[in-house]
Sequence to fold (183 residues):
Amino acid sequence: MYLPLPSSVLPIVLAVTLLLIGWLGWTGERDPESLWAPGDLSQYHADIAGCAHCHEPFRGVTTAKCVACHTPQWFGDISEATVNAFHQDKIRKGRSCLDCHTEHRGRLGQIVIGETGNPHGEYIFSATGTRSCTDCHAFGSGPGRPTTLLDTEAVKRLHRKGRGAHRTGEFSDCLQCHGTEAK
Fold:
């Protein structure tokens, strides 16, 4: 059986509810990052000034917001033709960017999720001074095509620095040797 609250309790419950709503609104407006953000942005999006740049109120991140910055022209300028075509195909099909990408995993966090994650771990870009997988690798077009290690200065520097430990096939897990220093 349901017993209603005594009438003397109702003003207290109402006052506490209003205070809580007021506090959430004030804190959310005054310092939204500390209240709502689940973590720091990656190095790729660190220059974004505010949440509304990527998030729509009550909807979260939308492909429309992503495409506002990552335009077809942008993809064409910064990526290989196959990468550009892949992304444009996904956008045409109405796929969400969040199917493959995530954020708020920290400055050195990966933004690509799933099968295409970085086999070297999250710290490789910081350790090598690179910003993209294509700074060290060439990717074959199509499934089953091999990935080729390029002969770039970043690769040469990494090989020299590791005195053999960083040779091809030997440094897929940096944290095996570097432990906490990589953090």
Q: What stands out?
A: The mean pLDDT is 77. Residues 10-30 form the longest helix (21 residues). Residues 118-183 form one domain. The beta strands are 55-56, 60-61, 137-139, 147-149.
